[in-house]
Design a protein that fits this description.
By secondary structure, this protein is α/β, with parallel strands linked by helices. The chain has 16 helices and 19 strands. Strands 6-7-5-8-9-10-11-12-13 form a nine-stranded mixed beta sheet, with helices on both faces. A six-stranded mixed beta sheet has the order 14-15-19-16-17-18, with helices on both faces.
Length: 469
């Protein structure tokens, strides 16, 4: 069997202070004891809510090959004589394992950051590269201080491609993460006002995003959104990091990956693109102008990684949106159906605008009403109230029939929204479930969106439970 880590390689990588006895070969890596499988390594990380050390025994009972604990707590586990290693710091040990995984791979490593579009781009890249080799990528976002080393540690040595999402809430966070990833190709999808509550300006966000270029390996490539206002700045920052292969994607005729023509519809998009001098016709199963633009970045990476571009295009024709990021569900309403668009994972003014634009492309059957259900956009700082009120123009321009809002910040928008669009307001997301269900009709298109902390997912879950085909 080809193990993820042999026992000796694992031990060498995590650098234990003490190892009382034998450990097993490792076939998986986890920081959640509930997901432990036989042969997995369990890292007992201390989180904001739980200390993983409390679940060490349950991980062993579930069949863990090894549990990684801190030497400072060794006295609490004096009865363990095998399948355990004690380290200086569990998270740092996970980082060391991640670095070892990066060091041993010969595959092409791709890092993705940006204010919006990171996860959608990462997921599309995984599908696009699968025809060309063995692809490793996280199943979820996993883009923070524990998610990145965990994803690295799970990468098999024979992976042909590794895709890593790199996120941040503060300056310096990407720098720390990219120092583990060392990508061959680094992408910045876009720079907009997301998490701006932690920065003094959007300019500072651009500076923080540019940290990704500091880790690009010699001979590697940078890919930036040329249509974004910070495209030139990001290209200059990439050059200052010694990157010679700098490419742009967008609409300009001089870009290496450019959109020539786009037919945007509610059920998908048909694109004509130019990719490093070659023209292609691309069909996308997922709708939206933002996804059409991101597909340029995806296919540019496929080209830069030396993978099969026509095969990638064929795969994207059936690759739909993912949960919480535009996934579509057909609901049974009366004798007909309604369409639910799940955008419940995150929200900022830019992503709300993109979602509303996509909703505006469609028209349902029957009543054909287009309904937006919006929760608070979080981490917007002192401008939060004004940024929420700025959505009014977007909602009107999208020609929506009804709008449901919830959360204290969305109340600012509610007060300035045209009366004929006001469908309902609640302090919490749960408050909208009953009136929305009572109002729902055959042919409606309903889009639910909000920051994860606004808990809009409970609305999606309730509608699916009641009406899913």
């Amino acid at each position: 069997m080809n193990h993820l880590w042999t026992a000796s390689d694992f031990s060498d990588a995590v650098e234990p202070i003490s190892q009382p006895g034998e450990i097993g070969n490792v076939d998986g890596v986890s920081i959640d004891s509930r997901s432990i499988g036989k042969g997995d390594a369990f890292f007992a990380i201390k989180g904001d809510r739980f200390d993983g050390h409390a679940f060490a025994y349950s991980a062993l009972e579930a069949g863990a090959a090894v549990v990684v604990l801190e030497e400072a707590q060794k006295s609490d586990f004096s009865n363990l004589s095998e399948r355990v290693v004690f380290v200086d710091d569990v998270l740092k040990a996970l980082e060391r394992l991640g670095r070892a995984a990066r060091k041993r791979t010969k595959g092409k490593i791709i890092a993705v950051t940006g204010s919006v579009g990171k996860t959608s781009t990462k997921d599309a890249l995984r599908k696009a590269l699968e025809p060309s080799g063995k692809v490793h990528a996280a199943v979820a976002s996993f883009n923070n201080h524990w998610g990145v080393p965990l994803t690295l540690a799970r990468m098999h040595a024979d992976s042909d491609f590794g895709i890593f999402e790199v996120g941040m809430n503060h300056s310096g966070e990407i720098r720390a993460l990219i120092d583990m990833v060392w990508p061959d190709i680094a992408i910045v999808t876009t720079v907009v006002a997301a998490h701006i509550g932690n920065f003094n300006s959007i300019d500072e966000i651009a500076v923080a995003k540019a940290e990704i270029f500091e880790g690009v390996v010699s001979g590697g490539s940078a890919l930036v959104n040329g249509d974004n206002e910070f495209g030139d700045y990001l290209a200059k920052q990439a050059a200052s990091c010694g990157i010679e292969n700098i490419h742009r994607f967008g609409s300009d005729a001089d870009f290496d990956a450019k959109l020539l023509k786009a037919d945007l519809r509610a059920d998908g998009s048909d694109l004509s693109i130019s990719l490093f001098g070659e023209q292609y016709q691309v069909h996308l199963a997922a709708p939206g102008a933002h996804l059409a633009q991101n597909s340029l970045a995806v296919l540019a990476v496929v080209h830069l990684a030396g993978a099969n571009v026509p095969a990638a295009i064929a795969v994207l024709a059936s690759h739909g949106a993912t949960k919480g990021r535009g996934e579509r569900h057909e609901l049974s309403i009366g004798k007909g159906t309604a369409l639910l668009i799940d955008e419940s994972y995150n929200a900022n003014p830019s992503s709300v605008s993109a979602a509303l634009e996509t909703l505006g492309l469609g028209s349902g059957k029957g009543s054909g009403r287009r309904i937006a259900v919006l929760g608070d956009m979080l981490e917007l700082g002192s401008d939060a109230a004004a940024l929420h009120m700025s959505l009014k123009e977007m909602l009107v321009d999208a020609g929506l029939d009804k709008v449901y809002l919830c959360g204290p910040m969305m109340h600012h928008l509610w007060e300035c929204l045209p009366k004929d669009m006001q469908a309902g307001y609640g302090e919490r997301s749960q408050d909208l479930i009953a009136p929305l269900k009572e109002d729902l009709q055959e042919g409606d298109m309903v889009m639910v969106k909000g920051s994860l902390g606004s808990r809009m997912g409970v609305i999606v879950a309730s509608l699916l439970e009641s009406y899913k085909n």
